Amino acid sequence: MTERQNIPAETCRDLLKRYWGYDSFRPLQEEVIHSVLEGRDTLALMPTGGGKSLAYQIPALVMEGMCIVVTPLIALMRDQVTDLRQRGIAAEALYTGMEWETLETITNKCLYHRVRFLYVSPERLSSPRFRGYLSRMPVTLIAVDEAHCISQWGYDFRPSYLRVAEIREFFPTAPVLALTATATPEVVKDIQERLHFREPRALSTSFRRANLSYVVRETENKLPETRDILAKIGGSAIVYVRRRETAEAVADYLNHSGLCADFYHAGLSLPRREQRQVAWKSGKLPIIVATNAFGMGIDKSNVRAVVHYDIPDSPEAYFQEAGRAGRDGQRAYAVLLSGATASYTLKRRAAQAFPKKEYIRRVYDALSDHFCVAEGGGNGMAFEFHMDTFLHYFKLNRYLTLSSIEILSLCGYLERATGLHSRPRVTFTVRRDQLYDIELGTPLLDRLLELLMRRYPGIFVQDAYINEEELANDLDVNPPGLHEALLVLSRRRVIRYIPGDDYPCIVYQMPRLPSSYLSFPPAVYATRREALARRIDAMLDYIKNDTTCRQLILMKYFGQTEREPCGTCDNCIDGKKRRRTDAPFFEEGEAATDIPLAPLP
């Protein structure tokens, strides 16, 4: 363990007050901060909304140098960088899809000590070019967010995280702070081993959420049930579903029922996803119906309800997603809708997650034939991948195919990447002299045209690849606002605007092999399949249990042994009445605020 100077608690509280305006820390924050300042590798288990970011931001400000933050969540990177900059703290982010010039500019800032926080994706750490730069940066702290992703025992294992520990060789005196909201005792041990902790040190706060009421609702009529619950509770809400089609159908039903809702999934273009995310965060859109990636890393404290329309595969996923409700400490609800087919549905998902090995080999051959990759070729090559076209041509099942590609990725044969970015481009459809005759009507559009002409000289004769982030900063608008302004100019036929977008691709990590040569290690296939079966059994136990406090069920799963019931979940209040299919979520004349809850902290 590296010896470090003891930092007075007042220094940390002064920084907290100066930059964030808080007078005191939340539970566990101060203990984690001082552990890091002592130079100790630390794993912090802090529930969603527990203030994980301050656990590394405060010690990094005390230390000299830069903190590198590893996270897979681009939304979190952007939010955190924006937040830190608004507080006068230099922060940058590097992730796949950024323009080369932007990457170089940010890298040079880091080399010359002009950045305090650098957010990077785990995939970026694998780049030899980036590593060459990284080894010369003044890194004094390494923070690893969503650290459960490094454990093969976890529910969200990602191979790219295995490279994180390698960068420790560049900074032998820098402590590592690993952060996660959910980890079983088995995963806690594995995280520390894989990050090469000098000595075991895991700090945890209670996972109890006194203001959050957990409810399981048995119903065969999920649409009207969801509508009634959201109408009664009111306020901002997330409805989680598994499929894109379900997201669209539920949002449409809620809108026709008089509620304001929209859907969010990966099938939307990047600008549309950003627009809906901003609308929901700002409160203009109260209800978002989304697949499970939505909400990760997004800081919105006043969510009053999280409804799981479909059952998650694990208590870890459920606990994290449900925990996005009530971060402001006010009354909130986490409602899970179940039905008679719950057990069958989850068991079927487990089978789809681990197709037969013959099927995985078939998918591997089909991909290689689709991209015309011969045996021995393809190493390091990336191919744009359109799933629907591929499935239709080779007559494959979507979910079995996605699972097969994930297993091939975990084995190191290939990878399905989603971060490649097609850059947005603009060209004028009118002559320069014609612009003087066009009445645009708003100062923003006038300033945007002037900026486009000044920054991209050839824009009247050919497509210009534009940097939307820089344009938005120069115009002092958010990216969705810029996107809408560009669309207005396009609709008025002043410009032709082709938005950028993320597109998936398949990257070969090694030369193509004969499919008969493919091997599937137990850690990737058999062991993970058994672990998923255990998590599904635990999820079913949670759903079917109608007597035990739901908070205690979840806490026990994560290795916490508290015995005091929450007094706020459906089982604690009157489980049997609340779980009847014909019983309303609230009794007649009863409002959400009438449900008895434990005192707020």
Strand order of the largest sheet: 3-4-2-5-6-1-7
Helix/strand/pairing category: alpha/beta
Q: Give the low-pLDDT segments.
A: 591-601
Q: Ends: how far apart?
A: 36 Å
- Portion of residues within helices: 25-40%
Number of strands: 21
What does this structure look like?
This protein folds into four domains: 9-204, Rossmann fold, CATH 3.40.50; 212-345 and 530-594, P-loop containing nucleotide triphosphate hydrolases (Rossmann fold, 3-Layer(aba) Sandwich); 355-420 and 503-524, Arc Repressor Mutant, subunit A, CATH 1.10.10; 424-499, Arc Repressor Mutant, subunit A (Orthogonal Bundle), CATH 1.10.10. The strands form five sheets. Strands 3-4-2-5-6-1-7 form a seven-stranded parallel β-sheet, sandwiched between helices. A six-stranded parallel β-sheet has the order 8-13-12-9-11-10, with helices on both faces. Helix content is 40%, strand content 15%. The longest helix is centred in the C-terminal third of the chain and has 19 residues, at 526-544. It starts with 8 loop residues before the first helix and ends in a 22-residue tail after the last helix. With 601 residues, the chain is α/β, with parallel strands linked by helices. The chain contains 21 helices and 21 strands. Helix 13 crosses helix 15. The model is unreliable at 591-601 (pLDDT under 50). 38% of the residues are buried.
